[in-house]
C-alpha cells in the first residue's frame, strides 16, 4: 500500500486528479481557521444531540441512521451535521477559498457549477466501512468527465485506524463498482488497491465523482472530524437544494458571491429560475427578476 498523493500547489493537485482521480491538498486551512470550524461544528453537534434533533448512527454511515438523541448508555459512532450554511458564517466563508474554485474550473472544464451539499461528519470508534461506490453512478449515463467532485476538509488528523476515507487510485477510468459484490474482489480484479487518505488537520482531500471510494472502519479512540462539500455542474440536481433550504434570516445576510455558490443564479436562461412564492417575497435569483403572478381568471380582481 502506497502513500496518498499529496499536493502543495493546485497544479500538482490537478496532475493527481487527472492521473489518480483524487488528491490531498496540504495546508488548505491555517490552524486558526481549523480551530474555528472545528469548535463551531462540535458545538452544533452537541446542541443537536441535546435538542433531540441530531442525525446519528451506531455502525456505518447509513447503517441504523436515526434522528434524535443518543440512545441511553451509548455514544453514537457516527453523527452528521447537515445544511451547514444555516449553522454559522464560518461554513459559508469556507466555500469561497480560491483553491476550491481553481480545482472546479479544471474538473468542470470551465462550465458553471454550484454547491451540492455541505455537512459535518464526526466518526468514532466502531464506525464501520461504507459500501464501495462512485458518486457518479447515481446518474444513469456513461460520461467522459465528472459531473461532481467532493472535498473533505480535515478538521482532525486522518489516519487509517480513524476510518479515513479509502480511495482506489485510477478508478475514475473504471466502470462503476458493483454494489452487490465484494469490494476487495473488484479492486483485486483490476490490479488496483485501496488507499486510505492519511492527512493532517488543515488538509483537504478532493476526489472526482467517478472515483471509487468508501469510509473506512474506525478502531481509534480519536474522533475523526471533517466537513464534506460536494460541488456539481449547474444542471445536476444537488443533494441539497439550498435556494429552498437556506433560512430567511440567513438569506438576508448572503452576499452575491454566497448566492452564486449556493445556486441562486440562473445559468444561460436555462436552469435555476426562482419565482416569488408570494407578493413581496425577498428570495429571488441573483441575476434575474420575476414578478409575482398567481393564478388569474376572467373577472378576478387584480
TrEMBL record:
**Keyword Ion transport recorded:** no
Keywords associated with the record:
Dioxygenase, Oxidoreductase
InterPro entries annotated for this entry? Answer: Phytyl_CoA_dOase-like
Keyword Oxidoreductase in the entry? The reply is yes
> MF terms per GO, please?
dioxygenase activity
Q: What is this protein called?
A: Phytanoyl-CoA dioxygenase family protein
What species is given as this protein's source?
Amycolatopsis silviterrae
Q: What is the lineage of its organism?
A: Bacteria, Bacillati, Actinomycetota, Actinomycetes, Pseudonocardiales
Amino acid at each position: 500500500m502506497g502513500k496518498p498523493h499529496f499536493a502543495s500547489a493546485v497544479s500538482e493537485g490537478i496532475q493527481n486528479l487527472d492521473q489518480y482521480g483524487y488528491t490531498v491538498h496540504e495546508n488548505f486551512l491555517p490552524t486558526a481557521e481549523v480551530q474555528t470550524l472545528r469548535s463551531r461544528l462540535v458545538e452544533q453537534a452537541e446542541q443537536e444531540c441535546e435538542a433531540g434533533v441530531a442525525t446519528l448512527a451506531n455502525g456505518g454511515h447509513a447503517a441504523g441512521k436515526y434522528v434524535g438523541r443518543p440512545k441511553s448508555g451509548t455514544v453514537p459512532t457516527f453523527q452528521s451535521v447537515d445544511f451547514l450554511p444555516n449553522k454559522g458564517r464560518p461554513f459559508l466563508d469556507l466555500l469561497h477559498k480560491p483553491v476550491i474554485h481553481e480545482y472546479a474550473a479544471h474538473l468542470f472544464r470551465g462550465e458553471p457549477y454550484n454547491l451540492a451539499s455541505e455537512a459535518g461528519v464526526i466518526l468514532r470508534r466502531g464506525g464501520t466501512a461504507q459500501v464501495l461506490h462512485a458518486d457518479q453512478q447515481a446518474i444513469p449515463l456513461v460520461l467522459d468527465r465528472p459531473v461532481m467532485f467532493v472535498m473533505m476538509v480535515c478538521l482532525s488528523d486522518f489516519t487509517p485506524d480513524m476510518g479515513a476515507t479509502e480511495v482506489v487510485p485510477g478508478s475514475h477510468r473504471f466502470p462503476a463498482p458493483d454494489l452487490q459484490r465484494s469490494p476487495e474482489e473488484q479492486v483485486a480484479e483490476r490490479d488496483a488497491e485501496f488507499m486510505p487518505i492519511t492527512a493532517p488537520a488543515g488538509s483537504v482531500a478532493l476526489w472526482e465523482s467517478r472515483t471509487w471510494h468508501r469510509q473506512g472502519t474506525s478502531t481509534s479512540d480519536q474522533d475523526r472530524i471533517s466537513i464534506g462539500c460536494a460541488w456539481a455542474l449547474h444542471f445536476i440536481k444537488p443533494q441539497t437544494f439550498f435556494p429552498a433550504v437556506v433560512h430567511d434570516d440567513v438569506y438576508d445576510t448572503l452576499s452575491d458571491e454566497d448566492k452564486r455558490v449556493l445556486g441562486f443564479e440562473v445559468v444561460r436562461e436555462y436552469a435555476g429560475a426562482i419565482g416569488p412564492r408570494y407578493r413581496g417575497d425577498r428570495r429571488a435569483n441573483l441575476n434575474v427578476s420575476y414578478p409575482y403572478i398567481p393564478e388569474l381568471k376572467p373577472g378576478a380582481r387584480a
